[in-house]
Amino acid sequence: MNIPNRLCWVAFWICALAVFGARGDVRPNIIFLMADDLGFGDVGFNGNSLIKTPNLDRMAADGIRFTRFYSVGPVCSPTRACVQTGRHCMRFGMINVNVGKLPAGEITIAKICKSMGYTTGHFGKWHLGTMTRDADRSQVRGARAAEGYSPPWERGYDTTFTTETNIATWDPLDYTDLRIPKHSCRFWSNGEEVKGDWKGSSEKIIMDRAISFAKDAVADGKPFMATVWFYGPHSPVRAGKKLRDLYPDQPLGRQHYLGAITAIDRQVGRLRAELDKLGTADNTLIFFCSDNGPEGTGTPEPDYNPYGGAYYGSAGNFRGRKRYLYNGGVCVPAVAIWPDVIEPGRTVDTAACTLDYLPTVAALLGYSMPDSRPIDGTSILALLRGGPFKRTKPIPFASKLRKDSPDATWIDGDYKFCTNLTHAGADALYHLHDDPGEKSNILSRHPDLAGRMKKQLLDWIESARHSYEHGDYPGYERQGSFINSGRNTK
């Protein structure tokens, strides 16, 4: 190339970079933070004046606070499968915890980001399959160790530091008061067990690795995507003495519970501070949510133990808790920040959910799905950017965990339709803006609307059934189970 031509190319790229920089088209880093069993009412930004969550509260003030963000799954694994795929977990048989695994043929957020030049990392709880086929080293034990093998390093993640399921939120190697073997602590990194003298906050243990990953990515000049899935406040719930001492007037069990949440909050603040030091905070999109509502009845045992301590969680003014399809089980605390793009201090009451993560990432990165498999979420990129946004896809829910909860529900705009597919119970229609506690069934006032929503829900169930029974891509292997749609499928 001669000198004039070379100068022309240099000038071209200088202009191009200037244009891209002016438009803010530098690819953002993306981080998905998720707490476990954190109720809607368990954070300061949703009105809890007792809990100390200053970093999460600041995050909400610096970005968007969602008042109607849905986990979709009323328990752990189903929600995590929705996060990873943008598809309802029932399409591939993961309708419950410890049933099935994340199939290799699913397109995950990690696979998408990796294909677009990102380095990817997962840190913390996985609960979408086992890390080893060795039953003696798997947290789930028995034959399911081999059957459930589906580690994050085989689902699109470059760097991992993870456990198969939950561990104690403090001193995870201390088993003196743990009665469930699956809560033994085994960390894995890219196929190898990582042994260490793990003490203190389990949230700090995983955040140490997540921050190291971010530093390496920045040093290498690569955009990164990370999922950081915390352990608290899921049982076994423990908090160190300094965390408990923040709540001196509370019963010991509540001290542990609140302290476990504050431990998460501190690691969120630490992450944001490190991103600021790295000079990448402004161009990092961070989502935070919980995987479902709070555990148990809400009536803790009088004496503290690391399992009953989880019952202190709050669903706010919502009906139901974990395992329910009422708001208390699936409407969770959620925020999003992206300083370069998101106007701070926004409160959004438009319905959004974990199914939207993958379509949003795809839209942000310009990724096109390679086939026509059904995607149940929708991109909320326009909402994040503050532009006009109207949800085009209702949000589906299905579960068979509780007979005092609907089997399936359908949220479209401000309305939520509930039905029972396998047991007796009247259908219901709620207006979620006027009645977020789902106390007033208004179906008799809107029978036509309820009828339309019921048909849409049942049609969607049949679409999900087709996915489950026949698969949406080559090599699909049926696993797990599907909801019994019983009498209402016709």
Question: Can you summarize this structure?
Answer:
The chain has 490 residues and is α/β, with parallel strands linked by helices. The chain has helices at 3-23, 54-62, 76-85, 109-115, 144-147, 202-220, 241-244, 252-278, 327-330, 357-365, 381-384, 447-470; strands at 29-35, 64-66, 69-70, 119-125, 159-163, 187-189, 192-194, 224-229, 284-290, 334-337, 346-348, 352-353, 395-398, 408-412, 415-419, 428-431. Residues 1-24 have low confidence and may be disordered.
Can you characterise this structure?
The chain contains 12 helices and 16 strands. With 490 residues, it is of the alpha/beta class. The protein folds into 2 domains: 26-384, Alkaline Phosphatase, subunit A (3-Layer(aba) Sandwich), CATH 3.40.720.10; 395-489, Arylsulfatase, C-terminal domain (2-Layer Sandwich), CATH 3.30.1120. Strands 5-4-8-1-9-10-2-11 form an 8-stranded mixed sheet, sandwiched between helices. The protein has a 4-stranded antiparallel sheet with strand order 13-14-15-16, covered by helices on one side. Helix 6 runs parallel beside helix 8 (252-278).
